[in-house]
């Protein structure tokens, strides 16, 4: 079985169920609209409703965009295989394929298991992190499960079963991501409920002390949980999706995986830091320094900025990964200056050239043997 380690983002990212922002932000927004309606500010109610609906739509679109590569990988799960028999081709479940079976992959079908090709063909391996460019494989090359055959019908020998394929390891990593993400979502949701309670208490205090319902509505409109809750989870999910696109979701030793991890964490922290802007606007609204329309505009700007920063994790890292030790060894290093009392180094000896002698079993025309 494949025992590769999980990507760091797998234990932190939010996903399909990790949407604590709407669960907290929607009640606060509705309470603000009720206060504005009680104060007779109908234009503010209409504008606030538009901002709330647009914010929910942006969050939903951001979640789907952040998970696009994870969904593509799951959608590329092969379920059926065409097994070559002596006189026919039989369609069987991919889980029934055993190493050594001769399989047939038609044009447009998914490779069911890892195998060795009997003839050349072109495959789309975007779901496996190979990029959008089709890959040409010659006869005898190994092709991974989950790749789509873009060429004519091709035959292949299975080298593993469905449980040991590279695509199964990647899919198991995504399933682990979906299971572990709920813990972070529950923690963020508890934090969001606490912040929402503080905002409601502040709005109630303002309404009781001043009697100004619009000022209380401004406090609730400025108290948006999107930067801290929704945007931070979207950033981590986008990082995991980026890692899946590059094929390093299950590889922690890759410098590219570490770079993607750093980018996702940086985007999550930057998006969460925008909560300070919303908090400052809420305090100013409570003191009467910010009107309700200005608080609504601040909420819209902060929400859009936080989601944009979160989706920045989908882009490639600005700093390329550190080169490997092999690459460093090939770079010529500058010579250190030699002191006056240091003796002159001995010249390097040239390697001895072996004497040509024919190989056992026959030689080539130039006197050297050949292994082939």
From TrEMBL:
All copies of the P-type ATPase A domain together span: 88-168
**Biased composition annotated in UniProt, kind: Pro residues:** 344-357
TM helices/strands, residue ranges: 30-58, 191-210, 216-236, 267-288
Per UniProt, what is the membrane topology?
Multi-pass membrane protein
Q: Which Gene3D superfamilies match?
A: Calcium-transporting ATPase, cytoplasmic transduction domain A
UniProt GO molecular function: cadmium ion transmembrane transporter activity
Can you quote a single GO CC term?
membrane
**Stretches for region Disordered:** 323-372
InterPro entries in the cross-refs: ATPase_P-typ_TM_dom_sf, ATPase_P-typ_transduc_dom_A_sf, ATPase_P-type_domA, Cation_Transport_ATPase_IB
Per UniProt, which keywords does this protein have? Membrane, Transmembrane, Transmembrane helix
Domain of life of the organism in this record? Bacteria
Query: Record's family?
Result: Belongs to the cation transport ATPase (P-type) (TC 3.A.3) family. Type IB subfamily.
How is this protein named in the record?
Answer: E1-E2 ATPase
Organism, by scientific name, is Streptoalloteichus hindustanus
What is the taxonomic lineage of the source species? Answer: Bacteria, Bacillati, Actinomycetota, Actinomycetes, Pseudonocardiales
